[in-house]
Specification:
The chain has a single domain, classed as FAD/NAD(P)-binding domain (3-Layer(bba) Sandwich), CATH 3.50.50. 35% of the residues lie in helices and 30% in strands. The chain is built from nine helices and 21 strands. Strands 5, 6, 13, 14, 15, 16, 17, 18 and 21 form a nine-stranded mixed sheet that branches. Strand 19 and strand 20 form a beta hairpin. Helix 1 runs parallel beside helix 3, helix 1 packs parallel to helix 6 and helix 6 packs antiparallel against helix 7. The protein starts with a strand and ends in a 5-residue tail after the last helix.
């Protein structure tokens, strides 16, 4: 096999890249370590896509059920600070879209299916100086000769490990909890985010194949609050606090999933003809639901640079192409990571003066249309480089 691009990881981002490159007649393969099995859709885990990410999947002809979010109300559950975002403030139809993770994964998997090799993973990568390419040794001992290797294999990236990328990690000491629930909120296309000592609580509408009363909840809780309580007990014991904030009964309608929260980023995104993309290069707190959107922005920039390079010549400078991708994405991603870390630290602080400051800050931003438009444009993916 001699593809132009060899992609490690058959998740959402890896399959998107393969399909985008195929659409532009650039050959790729996807190396996926999991075996091909019947998919088990639990309809619990969700993703929040901004307008830019939605356009990327639209351009591939991917059609999945989506819930539209036109307004987001953010407030401090233990104070008076609040900020309200509306799509009308920036002349958009919607602020974002909620999708089921399983739905998007399934459709992108179908789109890239013929290019996916299941049940193997990359074992080693070496340079072939005679052909200015890379030899990729797979776990089944087959060798792939390729121009680029793209690590899209998540936070524990095998490509990053093999290529010795330097990683900086952080621990939020929080657990993310997610489940679906039935409740009656005032507006169908409205999402809420509540900050409190009981955690960061977000509630959003679900896609159209569910009733309007079913919502998804993503709840980040400090680990110290879970020391003497298991997660299910904590949820059932503390959900009443948010019911009072939202003036509605919240009836849990699914299993409760949870995972520990960490962040990480690599110092460099590329070395030679090897590159890291999406969660392999960076991960952030789910506070603003931007993790998947950063991954799509990475994927778009990578594809653009590869496509532009091959439009000019078949004999492209691989290192230059990847350096352009790195320049476009690294600082933007780091800025988002630092911003999320700032907000997480601000809203989990129990210091009285910090609480007063954050209440004042939320209310002040809510009154400043320039700042509100800036935040909305950034979150929607309009600030594209």
């Amino acid at each position: 096999m001699n593809p132009i691009v060899t992609i490690s990881g058959g998740g959402i981002i890896g399959n998107y890249i393969s399909s985008r490159l195929s659409k532009n007649n650039i050959e790729s393969i996807v190396i996926e370590k999991s075996t091909e099995e019947a998919e088990n859709k639990n309809y619990i885990r969700t993703l929040t896509l901004n307008s830019f990410s939605k356009k990327l999947i639209d351009d591939l002809g991917i059609q999945i059920p989506l819930a539209k979010i036109k307004k987001i109300n953010v407030f401090d559950g233990e104070g008076t600070g609040k900020i309200n975002f509306s799509s009308s403030e920036v002349g958009e139809d919607n602020l974002s879209y909620v999708a089921f993770f399983d739905e998007l994964q399934h459709e992108l998997n179908k789109k890239a299916y013929q290019r996916i090799i299941h049940g193997v993973q990359i074992k080693d990568i070496s340079e072939d100086s005679n052909t200015n390419s890379l030899n990729v040794l797979l776990s089944d001992q087959e060798i792939v000769n390729t121009k680029f290797v793209a690590g899209c294999d998540g936070r524990k990236s095998k490509v990053a490990e093999i290529s010795s990328f330097k990683e900086i990690t952080g621990n939020y000491h929080q657990t993310a909890i997610t489940f679906t629930a039935k409740c009656s909120l005032k507006e169908v296309n409205l999402a809420y985010q509540i900050f409190s000592e009981k955690g960061i609580f977000a509630i959003m509408p679900l896609p159209a194949n569910n009733t309007d009363s079913t919502h998804t909840i993503v709840w980040s809780v400090n680990d110290k609050r879970l020391v003497n309580s298991d997660i299910n007990n904590y949820v059932h014991k503390n959900i009443a606090f948010f019911e009072k904030q939202l003036f509605t009964k919240i009836e849990i309608s699914s299993d409760i999933l949870s995972f520990k929260l960490f962040n990480h980023h690599v110092k460099e995104y590329m070395t030679g003809s090897i590159v890291l993309i999406g969660d392999a290069a960076h991960s952030i707190h789910p506070l603003a639901g931007q993790g998947i959107n950063l991954g799509f922005a990475d994927a778009d920039a990578f594809c653009e640079e590869i496509i532009k390079g091959y439009e000019k010549s078949n004999n492209i400078n691989q290192k230059l192409v990847l350096k352009r991708y790195e320049i476009r994405r690294k600082n933007m991603n780091l800025l988002m990571l630092k911003s999320m870390d700032f907000f997480v630290n601000l809203f989990r602080s129990e210091n009285l003066y910090i609480k007063l400051l954050r209440n004042f800050g939320l209310s002040s931003v809510n009154k400043n249309q320039f700042l509100k438009r800036f935040f909305i444009n950034h979150a929607s993916g309009k600030n594209k480089i």
